[in-house]
Amino acid sequence: MSSRREREVEAMSLSPFRGFFDFQNEMNRMFDEVFRGLARRSRGEAERRFEWSPAVDVFSRDGDLVIKAELPGVRREDVDITLQDGVLTISGERRASREEERGEGYLVRERLYGSFRRSFQLPEGVDESGIQARFEDGVLEVTVRGAARETQPKRIQIEGPGA
User: Fold this and answer.
1) Per-residue burial over 85-124, b = 16 or more CB atoms within 10 Å of its CB, e = otherwise
2) Over 50: is that where the pLDDT of 37 sits?
3) Which PROSITE patterns does the record cross-reference, listed alphabetically (predicted)?
4) Is residue 126 scored above 90 in pLDDT?
5) Most buried of 16, 90, 111, 119 (most Cβ within 10 A)?
């Protein structure tokens, strides 16, 4: 019986989107998952305020690539989406209220605030005008039209003697 991680690796190897994720972001995400508990115990409150990263799902829907990011407590005007050299970047900031900034009266404080950034390498040939974004109920959904179409390899005829 294979482990969950082995099944995930196998699924990614079969996925037409392998290589889609920005390698550095994936390494940061895995590092955060493994060491988050240790970091919470070893760092002070001030440092923890800036170490959050939104959870993201990436999937295909009817030939389109869809990126959904959970951004609870983030206002739409505090989110920025850019595309440069085929890399789509979602960035922004979750701000604390004045009461939260002072930390007065708190017995437990686990919610994190501060800046975030997630970047994704899009498939080649994506039409920039085919990117749409919608923000509703703390969830950002970015749709890249036509970016999830599976393409078949093109067979190249080899010329030369005996062909």
Assistant:
1) eeebebebebebeeeeeeeeeeeeeeebbeebebebbbbe
2) yes
3) SHSP
4) no
5) 90
Residue 156 lies in a domain: no
Q: What is the dihedral of CA 146, 147, 148, 150, to 10 degrees?
A: 80
Residue 114, in any domain of the structure: yes
pLDDT one-digit tens code per residue, 132-146: 999 999 999 999 998
φ/ψ of 129, rounded to 5, equals -70, -10
- The residues with which 60 forms a beta bridge, in sequence order, are 65
Q: Which two tokens stand for residue 4?
A: 């969950």
Strands (E), the chain: 56-61, 64-70, 79-84, 87-94, 114-121, 131-136, 139-144
* Statement: residue 43 has pLDDT above 60: no
Q: Which residues are 131's β-sheet partners?
A: 144
> In angstroms, rounded to a whole number, what is the distance separating the alpha carbons of residues 58 and 28?
17
Name beta bridge partners: 89.
Answer: 82, 119
pLDDT at 69: 97
Q: What is the CATH number of the domain that holds 44?
A: 2.60.40.790
pLDDT digits (tens, 9 = 90+) for 70-122: 999 999 999 999 999 999 999 999 988 776 666 677 778 778 888 999 999 99
Q: What angle (nearest 5°) sits at the alpha carbon of residue 53, between those of residues 9 and 119?
A: 65
Name the phi and psi angles at 133, rounded to 5: -130, 145
